[in-house]
Specification:
Length: about 140
């Protein structure tokens, strides 16, 4: 089985997204993830915007990894290891870069790493991914 996708080690994808309060609210509604990122306190006044959930940043990393693997609709994440280092706030511009680190066309597998920085260049998260690309 081959994917028909031409990938090379070192291929990269970069995504930039300004995270709005609405993005955070919708993500929280869908996931019920109200936990702050690793470096945020657990207390939050009702009605105040909170930090961007670490899971939302992790989802952006995963999205970039799938896109760098060719964006095939049947791409699945077989394994992911993500580490959130700092939190973002609503209205921060997050830039996620993913890079192919290994590619096996015969096995339809892609290894990628991704990292996220904010508009100040602060490193927020990084991760590694093993992806399977369906036919």
């Amino acid at each position: 089985m081959t994917t028909g996708i031409l990938l090379q080690v070192g291929s990269m994808v970069t995504l930039t997204k300004v995270i709005s309060e609405a993005d955070v609210a919708l993500f929280t509604l869908v996931t019920n993830d109200r936990l702050p990122a690793a470096d945020e306190p657990l207390t939050l006044d009702e009605g105040e915007p909170g930090p961007v959930p670490g899971a939302l940043v992790a989802a952006l990393l995963a999205c970039a990894a799938v896109q760098v693997a060719g964006g095939h609709p049947r791409t699945t994440i077989a394994r992911a290891e993500i580490r959130c280092l700092a939190s973002a706030q609503p209205d921060d511009a997050l830039t996620v870069t993913a890079e192919v680190t290994a590619f096996d066309g015969g096995a339809c597998s892609v290894s990628a790493r991704a990292h996220c920085v904010d508009q100040r260049g602060r490193h927020l998260a990084h991760g590694s991914f093993e992806l399977r690309v369906g036919d």
